[in-house]
Design goal:
With 317 residues, this protein is α/β, with parallel strands linked by helices. Helix content is 34%, strand content 13%. The protein has 11 helices and 13 strands.
Length: 317
């Protein structure tokens, strides 16, 4: 083989790799088991929109979807308190649906176990908390739990796509439903009993805003101010660039976490928040972007913990 042919083949392989893994985090390294980067750019999605195994999942409201969406996107809204993605269970918000119902929803989207899924959401309106951004990672978390490992977030969401004048359509998509046969990864969750047993052993991260962690502010979800004992504060909104709601680069994200854990990676991390939204974003960043192993979400979060145990106010652990 001539040197020219060799270089040409090498270049072709590199280009194909970039197209496969996405260029939003191509400068970073996603977990090796993935076939798509955990966060993909609008340019990557535009270039790969016609990929055979790709499903674009738009979790915005039906009204937002009807006003214009990415061509080919399937709409299954994430709505609080109840939608296809979350249920109210034992008076707790944002709980995972029963397995049969969840698998049916996933199959109705045309998603298979080996599908590449890109979740699209909207940016918050000025002055609103960025819960809508967390909705995307909550859906991604739920899909991974159900047995769909190749799930990505569209960086900057639909707002960035539209701002860049990329193609949108009002034509609704009716996907071909499939029978989804997943395998729930129950190890991704931690119960309140598990959290209590592992206090001081696992790194416990409170993903709520700092004033809520400290106890200066109280969210309506929890009846008591403060945080779970031993928890470290790392607010989920710090994960994003507030000017366009894209994710910060991997180096910055990693530095925030290592600032809590020190030089040695913790053997186990448990994330929580108020109801499980911000906590799922933290889980996604830790597990899928940064590659931490043995990360769990305490889905009951502060809303459940405060009903059974004391919270620690006015202290930074």
């Amino acid at each position: 083989m001539s040197r020219t042919v060799f270089l040409t083949l090498t270049a072709s392989i590199l280009v194909a790799s970039l197209l496969l893994f996405g260029n939003a985090f191509a400068k970073d390294t996603s977990p090796l088991s993935r076939k798509i980067a955990p966060i993909v750019s609008t340019d990557w999605l535009q270039q790969n929109n016609q990929s055979k195994n790709l499903v674009i999942l738009d979790v915005r409201t039906k009204e937002e979807y009807a006003e214009g969406h990415i061509p080919g996107a399937v709409n299954v809204p994430f709505l609080v308190p109840v939608s296809e993605w979350i249920v109210l269970k034992d008076d707790l918000l944002l709980e995972v649906p029963e397995q049969a119902a969840l698998f049916s929803t996933i199959g109705s989207c045309g998603i298979k176990n080996d599908s590449l899924v890109v979740v699209v959401t909207s940016a918050p309106k000025p002055g609103e908390p960025p819960y809508s951004i967390a909705n995307a990672t909550r859906v991604a978390f739920t899909l991974i739990y159900a047995g769909v490992p190749n799930v990505a977030i569209l960086d900057g969401g639909h707002n960035k796509w539209q701002k860049e004048n990329k193609s949108v359509t009002r034509d609704a998509v009716s996907p071909t439903a499939v029978t989804f046969q997943g395998k729930a990864r129950k190890s991704m969750f931690a119960s309140k009993e598990y959290v209590k047993e592992h206090l001081g052993k696992a790194l416990l991260i409170d993903a709520r805003n700092g004033d809520v962690y400290y106890g200066a502010s109280v969210e309506p979800f929890a009846s008591k101010p403060g945080h779970i004992r031993t928890a470290k504060s790392l607010p989920t909104p710090w994960m994003w660039n507030a000017n366009d709601w894209t994710y910060k680069d991997k180096k910055s994200l990693g530095a925030m976490v290592s600032g809590l854990s020190g030089k040695e990676k913790p053997k186990e991390i448990i994330t929580y928040c108020g109801v499980g939204g911000y906590g799922s974003t933290m889980w996604f960043v830790l597990s899928e972007v940064l590659g931490y192993k043995n990360v769990k979400l305490y889905d009951g979060s502060a809303q459940e913990w405060a009903k059974h145990y004391d919270m620690v106010p006015y202290r930074w652990d």
